[in-house]
């Protein structure tokens, strides 16, 4: 169950990272409120997952999900570069996340 909570926290991290782009420097009220809500919910779920999961593993996976998801969303929806070297780096993040999960004792 802790792993599902951690994945949800990571997905919310993607949400607030994308939300930051839409806040226009925190000048737009609704995007700002949704972004802040996503931040709080993401950190709260991370804290809940940390009751069971090792700190280093959970934190790395949380940030990795956020980074990986944000890059993919940037490529798919914001026209960001999808060059082979960049995609290789994204694949390396994914490999690292899977490696941490597979080698975790929980």
From TrEMBL:
Q: How does it sit in the membrane?
A: Multi-pass membrane protein
Q: Name one Pfam family in it.
A: Multi_Drug_Res
State where it is primarily located. Answer: membrane
Q: Which InterPro entries match?
A: EmrE-like, Small_drug/metabolite_transptr, Small_multidrug_res
Location comes to: Cell membrane
Keywords (A to Z) from UniProt: Cell membrane, Membrane, Transmembrane, Transmembrane helix, Transport
Segments crossing the lipid bilayer: 33-50, 57-79, 85-103
Q: Which family does it belong to?
A: Belongs to the drug/metabolite transporter (DMT) superfamily. Small multidrug resistance (SMR) (TC 2.A.7.1) family. Gdx/SugE subfamily.
Q: Which NCBIfam families would you find in this protein's record?
A: PRK11431.1 (NF008512)
Which PANTHER family does the protein's record reference?
Answer: GUANIDINIUM EXPORTER, SMR FAMILY PROTON-DEPENDENT DRUG EFFLUX TRANSPORTER SUGE
Q: List the protein's name.
A: Guanidinium exporter
Question: Which source organism?
Answer: Terrihabitans rhizophilus
């Amino acid at each position: 169950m802790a792993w599902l909570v951690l994945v949800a926290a990571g997905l919310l991290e993607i949400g607030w990272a994308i939300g930051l782009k839409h806040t226009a420097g925190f000048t737009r009220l609704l995007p700002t409120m949704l972004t802040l809500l996503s931040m709080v919910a993401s950190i709260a779920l991370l804290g809940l997952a940390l009751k069971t999961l090792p700190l280093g593993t959970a934190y790395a996976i949380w940030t990795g999900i956020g980074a990986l998801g944000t890059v993919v969303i940037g490529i798919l929806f914001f026209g960001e570069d999808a060059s082979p070297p960049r995609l290789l780096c994204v694949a390396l993040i994914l490999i690292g996340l899977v490696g941490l999960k597979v080698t975790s004792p929980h």
